[in-house]
Structure formats: structure tokens, C-alpha cells
Amino acid sequence: MTFSSNPLVDETFMAPAHHLLAHYVRNRRKQNTGLSDERFLTWGVMRALDADESGRAFLQARADQAESLPRSTWFDAFKSKRRLEMLTEVATKSYQYFDRELGDRDWLAEFEELNDHPVWAVDGHQIAHATHSERDGKGRYVASGMIYGLCLHRGLMRPLARFQGDAKRRHEWPVFKENWQRWLQGEPRQLMPIIVADPAYVNNLYWVLEKIHRHAMIITREKENMEPMIYGPCGFDPDDPINRGVVSDDHAGYSNAALRRIHYRDPATGKDLVFITTCNHLRPGLIALLYFLRWKIEKAYDVFKNRLGVTKAWGTGDTAALMQAHFVALLHNLLTVLLARLEHTGLSETKVIDRQKKRRDKLPPDKQVPAQNNVRYAFALTCQFIRTVRNALRYKIPWEDAYPLFKLRMESYL
């Protein structure tokens, strides 16, 4: 990033998405008036960033800044299948583009055995229904639910599919099964994907067959009502620091399939956890680490809700829901890329890194987990960083003035 020409922050923040839209998207429609695709893309990201309580409030804020748009034009855009196709294409290509740009910012760089495996934490996320949403047969509103994936290499987010909303209720699992293989098409890494999910995604025979067909491997938790038969140990090196906390690593049989079963006792808390997986080539401590990193998707949802204020559906129907999910994920990824670019200029989230180090140093050596200490960059976007970006874009601040603000807010808490 260079500041010699002193551009505005908003000119550089949206530049990657606009570049992809202009040069790599087939569903783009060129128009110079009204709500162009470029304007729709920018406004959708800003709608997610500005934390306005409603779509009308967002449009008023735009109008008060001399950027007015008819209300019907904005809301009708969220019913457009063509615009959804355009946005989906931008989001998909942006993930691939950002993955390359963040090449040296890999959460899992210390673990060479994961270099060529896509590793995705997957979970559902619910927000309040839209104002005009339908009620179900019992007269109740249904929250809008979307499945997302978080890349555990780069921290990038991608929506997968909607599983409920507008009077319809579905469990995450069948929706995930219907969509995940299409969702992972074009994944840049060469080896089999690893999916890390909570016990809602337990289906032992399904995952064994997926591995046999070389589609994907699973890491999840054993359910309390599962009664395995232990066949024998897999064997692991207890002296490997990565395996600290591993009690046992066994082959286990369940009602309809055999999996690897890892009993882990968290050194910091003493809590016992049991993981099941079809990954047979990874060290057991690394299996435990990847499951612990699954919680980072929960942290991302907390950012969506409490730091970005995205708590309610913007419209009704699957088209509007998917557009909103793409805009929120694209914003998350643009913020992640901006943070990485700032790091290349010498800035970093010093306050977060120092706090993590202090928390770790308080633990006695026998309660520390070396595997967790080897994970870099895996922290949530902070309130101060998000506010600084929001203010820089809202008030059209040039980089010459914004850079010292980023330095101040990233180095220490208010």
C-alpha cells in the first residue's frame, strides 16, 4: 500500500471488489445512471458496515450526504436474480483473489501437513426475521438462518446456503449436504478438504464414504449418546509438544462406521473432550487444535452481530438473504485484507497481540498448549479497527490523515 498520491480511504478500500467486478464478472451490466452494479456493490458493503438500524435509515444517511436514491430502487434490487448472480460471482472470485493476496498470512503456517488442504470451519448463523416476513403455520416468525464457512488458513468468510427463514424451518445438516460440494468448487488447494463442524454435522457413514470417494474429511465432537467400541490404539508420540493434552488416540467402531477417536484433556482447564474424525494422517493434537479453531467462526458471528450491527434480515426471500450474506462476508474479507495491507506497512493489532501474550504468560508451563501458541493472526476484527474504517469511509478521510489514526487505534485501547 502506498500513500504517496494520498487517495481517500474509501477509494482504496473498495478497489479490489470494483476491479473484479469490472474485469472478471460476466453478469455485470454497464449503466451510468441510477443504481449501477458498481454503486450497488459499494452500497451493499456500506449497508453492512454503517450499522444503521434499518434500510430506510441507511438510505436517509446516504441522502443526507447528497447520495440519494429512490427507496423502491434500492429495495427492488434485492429481488433481482441477475444482481444476485453478479454479486455471487464477485464474492467467489474475491475469495480466490484475497486468498492469494494473504499468502503469507496463514493461521496454520506452522503445520506443513496442512499446507495443501483446504480447512473450513462450518456452522449456521441466525438473525432476526425481516419486518415483512411471513409467519409459520403456528403464527410464529422464523429467524433467518444462513450457513457460513470460515477458512482456517486465511480467516476469510463465505456464505454457503440459507437453511431457514420466511416461515420455513430446516435443519442445517441436509442443507449443508445439498450444497457443500458445489460451494468448494474452484478451491485453490490441491488436497482433500477438511471440514471442521460441531456435532450437528455428525453422520459417520456419510463422512466415511465421502473420504473413500476423496471428497472431504471431517473433524467433529463425539455426541454423548454415542457408544463406541474401541478396536485398538492408532499410536502417537506423547513427547511431541503438539500432542500435549492427548490422552488416547484409537480406532473406534460406531453403529454403522469406524472412525478415529481422540480423547483430549485440555491442559489449561482440565476439561475432557472427545473428537472423532476421518483424518488419519494428522497428529492427534493437531486434530484438537483445528476443532478449537472452529470457535473462530463463532467469533466472526459475534463481529457481525455486535460490532457491525447486522442483527436483522434486510428483506424477505432467499435472494435478499443470500445478497445480505454475501455483502456481510465480503465486508469481513475486505476488512481482513485491509488489516493485512496495514501490517505490511509496519502496523499490527499490537493491543490484541500483547493481551494474548499476557494471558498466555499467566499460565504455568504445564497448562500451556504449544499447538495453540503456534497459531498466528487468528484473532477477531476489533471494535476500534472497524470504527476507524467506518469513520474514514463515512467522512471521506484521505490516507495521509487516516494512517496515524489506524496506528493509534491498533496500538492501544481507548
Structure, explained:
This protein has a domain at 9-81 and 310-411. It has 414 residues and is an alpha+beta fold. Helix 2 runs antiparallel to helix 3 (37-49), helix 2 (15-24) packs across helix 6 and helix 6 packs parallel to helix 11 (318-344). The protein is built from 15 helices and 9 strands. It has a 9-stranded mixed sheet with strand order 3-2-1-4-5-9-8-7-6, with helices on both faces. Strand 7 (246-253) and strand 8 (258-265) form a beta hairpin. This is Transposase IS4-like domain-containing protein. InterPro entries: RNaseH-like_sf (IPR012337). It comes from Synoicihabitans lomoniglobus.
Low-confidence runs (pLDDT<50, min 5 residues)? none
Which structural class fits the helix and strand makeup?
alpha+beta
Question: How are the strands ordered across the major sheet?
Answer: 3-2-1-4-5-9-8-7-6
Mass-distribution shape: globular
- SSE topology string: HHHHHHEEEHEHEEEEEHHHHHHH
Name the beta content range.
Answer: 5-15%
The total of helices stands at 15
- Summed over residues and divided by their number, the pLDDT gives a mean of 93
Q: C-alpha Rg, in Å?
A: 23 Å
Number of strands: 9
- Relative helix content: 40-55%
Distance between the termini: 26 Å
Main beta sheet = 9 strands, mixed
